[in-house]
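Record 1 of the preview.
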Amino acid sequence: MRLIMFVVVIIISGFAVNKYVFSTKMYDDVSNVTDLVSDYPVDLFKFKKIAQNYAQHLCYTNESVLAGLNISSKECVDVHDEMQNECTKKVFRLAPLNMTSKKELIEYSNQYSRCTLPYKNIKL
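->
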């Protein structure tokens, strides 16, 4: 019985470490979405994926703001997942296929984040 409990604890610990350490590691020193882009022009399809991952990352970096609104990080990610398709169509509908400036990337990323994460006071 102890062995089973020990194995369960190890497995749960492994999932927690993967979720909170390794999966967000590339976003640790990111202050905005342009920190994730190394060369320009940026392909629209690549940028959509970056914007989606960055928006989910915002749920974890704004945990204290969300807690003040009685919203957990998981609920924030769930809302993002629900709004993702609608907001992708809405925001990137008229976007150019190649984005050439940081200003463009920041504008589209902020629009996407505001659409998928409709919470006031969340720091983009």
